[in-house]
Amino acid sequence: MTATTPSSTELAANSRNIRPGRIIAWTLLLIGGLIMVTPLLYMFSTSLKTSGQVYDLRLIPAAPTLDNYVKVLGDGRFMQWFFNSTFIALTVTASNVFFDSLVGYTLAKFRFRGRYFIFLAILSTLMIPTEMLVIPWYLMSSQFGWLNSYWGIMFPGMMTAFGTFLMKQFFEGVPDDFLEAARVDGLNEFTIWWKIAMPMVVPAISALAIFTFLGNWTAFFWPLIVTTSKELYTLPVGISSFSAEASIQWELIMTGAAIGTIPTLIVFLVLQRFIVRGVMLAGLKG
Amino acid sequence: MATANATPLPAPDRFWDRLSIGTKRVIWAWTFLALPVVFYAVIRFYPTFQAFWLSLTNWDLLRPAQFIGLGNYQKMFADPIFWKVFQNTFLYLIIGTPVSLLISFVIAFYLDRVRVLHGFIRALYFLPFLTTAAAMGWVWRWFYQPVPIGVLNGILGWMGLPQQPFLRSVDQALISVLVPAIWAGLGFQIIIFMAGLRAIPNTFYEAARIDGLGEWAILRKITIPLLKPTTVFLVVFSSIGFLRIFDQVYNMTTNDPGGPLNSTKPLVLMIYQTAFSSYQMGYAAAQTVVLFTILLIVSLLQLYVLREKK
Hints:
The complex is a heterodimer.
Chain A: H1 8-16, H2 20-47, H3 67-74, H4 77-109, H5 115-124, H6 130-144, H7 150-154, H8 161-171, H9 176-184, H10 189-197, H11 202-218, H12 221-226, H13 235-246, H14 250-285
Chain B: H1 12-18, H2 21-54, H3 71-77, H4 80-111, H5 118-126, H6 133-143, H7 151-158, H8 173-199, H9 202-210, H10 215-226, H11 228-243, H12 247-252, H13 267-276, H14 281-309
Helix pairs in contact in B: 2-14, 3-14, 4-8, 4-11, 5-8, 6-8, 8-11, 11-14, 13-14
């Protein structure tokens, strides 16, 4: 599971086998990969074209211009949505890292009556689809005045069974001796968790953080339901409403889509290894 | 506390110190769990029961909810649109899951052996996974437009092939919506498949080579069986994803959500419209119960398949 580097035998086998088949496979893989990013390339390309050039389907714009970006970002709506999405995704991620870890740790390292029951109860919520809860959540939000508020968008995701389960798996791998040693030193249980146990599961924390952030950054269904005022839209809901308004001005629609895509792509390019490893970790353990 | 004026008040930590280590730890555990227990009870379990209850009422936001028994379910099962939606939802699942898994397995299988530009090629496949479906729905929608706007029809025209209506056709719209959904999920599936492939110990392959097995036999007798847990996970994960498809459909068909003629409408979009366009909350709740049941069956099937082989 942790063996991400190829073994020497595998490498040796590879260098022996540089056959035409390998080269064809490699070329096909590369072409497939380029096809995968074609929609993204077209999106960026069109966002740099004027409305008159949209019909020109060449990938490289004849006269690239940032006018669309100036126009789309000009009225500040996208800035607001961008801020909303970032704030919400960061807050929910912080909450998940804190609570999912705390609960996962408690379930992994404490022995008490009801532990198994709590574990099963939390695990069973994985079976409940969000779509089933949105109507009661909507009712709850309207009763407590949470519609059109950050809290209204965030509250359903503040803790997740997926994250708790993932963290529990990893905390089970932390040796009890370390925790006992800290207890002998007189640290309280909260400090032991935060200062001793948490640093030992950093890869799991980053996997959880990546998944939670991405999930909330791209979330559409619940934010669409709970927000009606444009100032509180998240970026995906904003892009959707903006595009519907822009109707046939495809260069503006592509610019909006690009603005929503660029931040995650930059983060990915910076943290590629980290993210891929995190996805593998979460996928295999979760 | 107020009566303890004769003897000095026992300090709180004195009381705490008298507890056994075991008791202290139990208290710590429940302190840690206190807020989460409230959260799961209020934000997960209570709403679940409420959804079941609402599905038995005619609640419409205006009047208080009235119990109407199984009326919503009768209405739903008699509604031809529900069956159309039900069929669409399963079409997304039945086409989407095998197609996406087959493609991602083949790519992962070959990509795993690639050393030259491995990280770059992997990134190409992974990037779409990081995009927002709301944004990509519009990009693909533009791709599907008729000439002179749409890219795909432009390419077809350039190759001398007939133009296609894509999203405007009752027959092609569902597939046209499904393609971006598959496209966006491939990266994740490839990464997971590659992680699964690397978890297979090399000794198995070495032993197989010593026994003189060919590539195809190794694939069939070693790789695929040992990859089963990964495959089952991905089948369930992507099945649930396709059964819950919404973002792509909503964004690609905004002027007639789920159209043309309900040909792309999945269950979640029907739920959304019933609840938040028509405000028939009780009826929508009944539809969510159906979705819940379908997802539950899929999850239980996963448990069953995994248990049998262990």
